[in-house]
């Protein structure tokens, strides 16, 4: 199912006016986030639900309001502990630990929270003003 | 993801196509480790030209392949890195640890 999400998200990013490179970054971040949910929150169970919602929002940036894509991912897995979530040192050449680094490098805001038995990950990517387009 | 295998004297060439992600990266990892650990191939070449997407689990499989090659004194070469693959390897800051060739001819040269 991850490939279905990737394809749909790539089209959404393009429609919203993100560049191809920005679109690839958003797709990578969401794919890595969902992979982390499956691997860690659901401990490898691919049959558990992940709720994803996508919103075009106005968010503060440098003291002004800017257009952005907000992505919310919610799961009912084990509690994510942001204190323990850290991307590993990149000079440490070994498999694993790259996903969170990819997410943080690809998005402008990355916020973890937990409420009502759900883990929520909020990702925000700002639209570059001259590239933003009006969505009908 | 699809893996096609070719043999050229003492070189194994894997032509990879499609997406390397959580679901498919174990297959790539298994294929690489088999070539290095079981067959002790002196050189394994990965053609990534037709890879549409790679995530951190795919990068992890490449790193495992590289480590296995070092353990047995073999060479592990990548070629055909398209923009998507190159971007992800650059983001991982691991691009420089791999031996990368421009094309297949270079990667199988003596």
Word description of this protein:
The complex is a heterodimer of chains A (136) and B (110). Chain A is of the alpha+beta class and 136 residues long. Chain A has helices at residues 2-16, 20-41, 99-106; strands spanning 50-61, 64-75, 109-115, 118-126. In chain A, strand 1 and strand 2 form a beta hairpin. In chain A, helix 2 (20-41) packs antiparallel against helix 3. In chain A, 29% of the residues are buried. By secondary structure, chain B is an alpha/beta fold. Chain B has four helices and five strands; from the N terminus they run E-E-H-E-H-E-H-E-H. Chain B has a five-stranded mixed β-sheet. In chain B, helix 1 packs parallel to helix 2. The mean pLDDT of chain B is 96. The chains are: A alpha+beta (136), B alpha/beta (110). Chain A binds chain B through residues 2-3, 6, 21, 24, 27-28, 31-32, 35, 38-39, 90-91, 93-96, 98-99, 101-102, 105-106, and chain B through 19, 21-23, 53, 55-57, 59-61, 63-64, 67, 84, 87-88, 91-94, 97.
């Amino acid at each position: 199912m991850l490939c279905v999400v990737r394809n749909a998200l790539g089209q959404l990013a393009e429609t919203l006016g993100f560049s191809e490179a920005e679109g690839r970054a958003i797709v990578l971040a969401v794919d890595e986030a969902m992979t982390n949910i499956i691997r860690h929150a659901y401990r490898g169970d691919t049959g558990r639900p992940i709720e994803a919602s996508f919103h075009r929002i106005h968010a503060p940036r440098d003291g002004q309001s800017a257009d952005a894509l907000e992505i919310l991912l919610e799961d009912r897995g084990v509690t994510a502990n942001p204190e323990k979530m850290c991307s590993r040192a990149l000079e440490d050449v070994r498999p694993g630990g790259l996903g969170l680094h990819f997410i943080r490098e690809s998005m402008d805001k990355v916020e973890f929270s937990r409420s009502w038995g759900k883990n929520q990950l909020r990702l925000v990517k700002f639209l570059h003003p001259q590239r933003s387009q009006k969505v009908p | 993801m699809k893996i096609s295998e070719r043999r050229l004297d003492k070189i194994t060439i894997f032509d990879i196509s499609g997406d390397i992600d959580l679901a498919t990266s174990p297959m790539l990892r298994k294929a690489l480790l088999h070539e290095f650990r079981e067959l002790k191939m002196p050189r394994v070449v990965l053609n990534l030209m037709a890879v549409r997407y790679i995530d951190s689990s795919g990068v992890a499989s490449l790193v495992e392949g590289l480590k296995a090659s070092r353990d047995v004194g073999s060479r592990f070469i990548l070629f055909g890195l398209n923009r998507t693959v190159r971007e992800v390897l650059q983001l991982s800051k691991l691009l420089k640890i791999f031996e990368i060739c421009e094309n297949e001819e270079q990667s199988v040269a003596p």
